[in-house]
Design goal:
Largest interface: A-B, 23 and 23 residues
Largest sheet of chain A: 7 strands, mixed
Order of helices and strands of chain B: EEEEEEEEEEE
Radius of gyration of chain A: 13 Å
Structural class of chain B: mainly beta
Number of strands of chain B: 11
Distance between the termini of chain A: 36 Å
Oligomer: heterodimer
Strand content of chain B: over 45%
Strand content of chain A: 35-45%
Largest sheet of chain B: 6 strands, mixed
Shape of chain B: globular
Structural class of chain A: mainly beta
Order of helices and strands of chain A: EEEEEEEEEEE
Number of helices of chain B: 0
Number of helices of chain A: 0
Helix content of chain A: under 10%
Amino acid sequence: TAGITQAPTSQILAAGRSMTLRCTQDMRHNAMYWYRQDLGLGLRLIHYSNTAGTTGKGEVPDGYSVSRANTDDFPLTLASAVPSQTSVYFCASSEGGGAADTQYFGPGTRLTVL
Amino acid sequence: GQNIDQPTEMTATEGAIVQINCTYQTSGFNGLFWYQQHAGEAPTFLSYNVLDGLEEKGRFSSFLSRSKGYSYLLLKELQMKDSASYLCAVPDSNYQLIWGAGTKLIIKP
């Protein structure tokens, strides 16, 4: 199985433009997550979804939005990109949203906002 | 609040043993995860500890002391492919993971 896929692999975006990062999983996991990873900082949670139809805000949600229309897909949208959103974005999923659930990560999207 | 501390970088020799420490502060405790992340790649799961003690999994072992808010990852018989960052994470009260900044492990021949 493919596990989790993300698209695009990398992108250069002009400030003020909008963009959607795509994430799809084929493991039928209930919970999905979006993180950003910046040099010297740990992974920081942007948004999460414990089940299709529900979403929640993480540690750094400002400037980002998500939707969870079905189990497999969890797109992340930047409505108006700013340079501080330059980062590597990882999507992850877990079988449930519990404390002991192992998270599985996609390959990441490297985004540069100029 | 939540806080996780790990050393930024460690260096070890191929074939040796290395211990990577992680200290945490949480309002409640729901276990501790270790992940491995090679440069330019996604994190991958290594271990999950919820009870005190040492859990061994091949060349890798993970230890937890809940009373001390302390964990370590022990890597034995180091191989060049073990060069990676090792991430420690604990769930917060909403079961969302709080991550340490990671320890970059450099293996020298």
